[in-house]
Amino acid sequence: MKALDIQDFKALIADETVVLIDTRPAEMFSEQFIPGSISIGLEGRFSEWSIAFFPPDQKIILIIYPGDEAVAYESLQKLGFNNVFGHLNGGFDTWVSAGESIDLLINIEPDELAMDIPFDDNLIIIDVRKEVEFNEGHIDIAQHMPLVEMSDPGTFATLEEHMNVYVYSQHGYRSVIAASLMKRQGLHNIRNVAGGMEDILKEKRIQITQEKSGLN
Fold this sequence. Notes:
five-stranded parallel beta sheet, alpha/beta, 12 strands, Oxidized Rhodanese, domain 1, 216 residues
């Protein structure tokens, strides 16, 4: 484990071949993060999504919540990642204390989404769950864009800057990953639906539909 000071950290992430992975909880990432970083929180399926998005020789720098360093490094080591250059000493707070620029995700509740759907002509809803989850029930007007396919930047080709993109998953973990990937590709009108499908189902104004062909 290599703790990097702020200057070495900035020099490394300036390299476009280096990926900055933020392993903090998705909720913390949403509130503020380093522009261009990708959220893969340790509280979820960190190993699964790390290997899904990146080859073992990918150059990686980490943002880790202090105290979680051993877990993050051990997980990546077990997956065979051999180009982990280190993590920012002191975590995200060091970045903030240095006065560096930050970004954030707009989190909205399902009731806000219900109010926006009838009035926003630029609204587009993305469901990032697995096909079986989507088929079992999804927002009627949602487009299916599985998170596992987002390792290919071409996945976002249909999304344009003027669109107001609302992203949801089952509980909110995967949608934050997806939103961070979209942000990295230059899309900024992103809204994460907090609580995911679990909370969306409680909002009776949002129409839910099933894909019967996919259930057979």
